[in-house]
Amino acid sequence: MATEAALPQTAQIPVINVSQIDASTADKLVDAAATFGFIFVELESTNIDYNDVQRMFELSKKFFASPRSEKAKCAITENNKGWSSMLSETLDPEHQSRGDFKEALNFGEFADGKAQQPMPEALAADESYLSGFFDSCHNLCVRLLQLFAMGLKIDEDAGGKDWFSARHDRSGPSGSILRLLHYPVIPPEAGYVPEKDIRAGAHSDYGSITLLFQRPAQEGLEILSKGWQPVPVHPEGVDTTRPPPILVNIGDLLSYWTGGYLKSTVHRVVVPPSASAGGEDRYSMAFFCHPVDTALLVPVPSALLRERGKKRGAMEAEAEGKAITAAEHLKGRLAATYGWKK
Ligand SMILES: O=C(O)CCC(=O)C(=O)O
Ligand SMILES: [Fe+2]
Predict the structure, then answer these.
(1) What is the ipTM of this complex?
(2) In a domain, 5, yes or no
(3) How far apart are CA 276 and CA 270, in angstroms?
(4) What atom of ligand 1 comes closest to residue 221's alpha carbon?
(5) Does residue 200 line the site of ligand 1, with CB under 6 A?
(6) Does the beta carbon of 286 sit less than 6 angstroms from any atom of ligand 1?
(7) Whose CA is nearest to atom 9 of ligand 1?
(8) Which domain holds residue 198?
(9) In a domain, 304, yes or no
(10) Is residue 98 a part of any domain in this protein?
(11) Range list of β-strands (E), 161-291
């Protein structure tokens, strides 16, 4: 359920401190998610250590710099795990000959510190470290899901603040993915055209919530809100000497689950014109949090949604006796994107 957020031209995505699990933080998060679908979360207010973010970016660089033949051994498969390069479906065919605009490495859930997919040679020694970072991202998502549940005023007798997190408890397989992204610089002689050289095509994310880690001075993300609006790495009011805040956005599944109340906002990546004159490669990292595959997307028992929600998404499906699971929701979204058979 991708929508265009009602973000006024001049509005800023709010920056929220999530160190407290309390009603005021919860209300701020839900407000931002219902208005913009995007929220900045102060990194220092989370369980994630900036040294780990930086080390992850070092590992990412190391992997993407490794020989193509090695990366190809971990090529992405239908389970959405592995390395993909130049996602051609996101690019205008007239630009195909330019080569790679973007490559990515997706890690699914680890089990006891072990990847459940071919491990790239360049990262083999860091498998348990990557698994630990995956866990930290998941734990932050659990905290955010608790805050969302509080802000939505989920009925206490139905599970209250733990209603979403109980459905993201890692008791079974899930679609959660940790993704490393690399956008190589386009050489100036390639005739860079900012409006055409889209590095990641317009899309919305599939899962519950996404954490996006951006690097200082590596802008490029834009969100669709009455036209394309650039998203800064350091928003106004956050000193550039501080770690960039984590950008959190709502995915299609959580939007579907809440009848569209929380917005899954369309976004894309361009490399700003200033980068055209010999800029640097852009690296980013995303953690896509999904419920366990078996979670049934029934209407959220929320006082706020009963009051303000629309009979859409999970609310409509339930009324028709067609509630789907998280796995079915994801399968539908992947099939729509990659043309894989349902
Ligand atoms: O690289 C970015 O900044 C955004 C990536 C993204 O939106 C995605 O992978 O879903
Ligand atoms: Fe995205």
Answers:
(1) 0.99
(2) no
(3) 11
(4) 3
(5) yes
(6) yes
(7) 286
(8) 18-338
(9) yes
(10) yes
(11) 177-183, 198-203, 209-214, 221-224, 228-230, 246-250, 264-265, 267-270, 282-289
For ligand 1, the distance from its centroid to the CA atom of residue 266, given in whole angstroms, is 11
pLDDT digits (tens, 9 = 90+) for 8-24: 443 479 999 999 999 99
Average pLDDT score over residue span 61-70:
94
In this structure, is residue 4 part of a structural domain? no
- The domain tally of the chain equals 1
Model confidence over 220-273: pLDDT tens digits?
Answer: 899 998 888 999 999 998 999 999 999 999 999 999 999 999 999 999 988 765
Q: Name residue, tokens 């051994």.
A: 73
The DSSP secondary structure of 75-139, one letter per residue, reads: B--TTS-EEEES-GGGS-GGGGGG--S-EEEEE--EETTEESSPPPGGGGGGHHHHHHHHHHHHH
Answer whether 130's CB lies under 8 Å from 115's CB: yes
pLDDT band (50, 70, 90) for residue 165: very high
Q: In terms of Cα–Cα distance, which of 333, 235, 341 is closest to 288?
A: 333
> To which residue do tokens 């040294």 refer?
51
CA distances from 141 to 18, 137, 232, 317 (A): 11, 6, 22, 26
Atom of ligand 1 nearest to the CA of 247: 3
Structure tokens at 260: 């569209």
Structure confidence by residue, pLDDT tens digits, 181-200: 998 877 666 666 666 677 88
Cβ within 8 Å of residue 87, ≥6 positions away:
102, 104, 200, 201
Question: What percentage of the chain exceeds 70 in pLDDT?
Answer: 85
- Residue whose entry in the numeric block shows the structure tokens 């980068």: 275
Instruction: Report the candidate in 322, 298, 263 with the shortest Cα–Cα distance to residue 163.
Output: 298
287 strand-pairing partners: 178, 211
321 CA to middle of ligand 1, Å? 35
In this structure, the residue with its CA closest to atom 1 of ligand 1 is 284
Q: Which atom of ligand 1 is nearest to the CA of 214?
A: 3
C-alpha 283/C-alpha 213 separation (Å) is 9
* Probe residue for ligand 1, chosen from 38, 89, 215, 221 as the CB with the greatest number of ligand atoms within 8 Å: 221
CATH number for the domain spanning 24: value is: 2.60.120.330
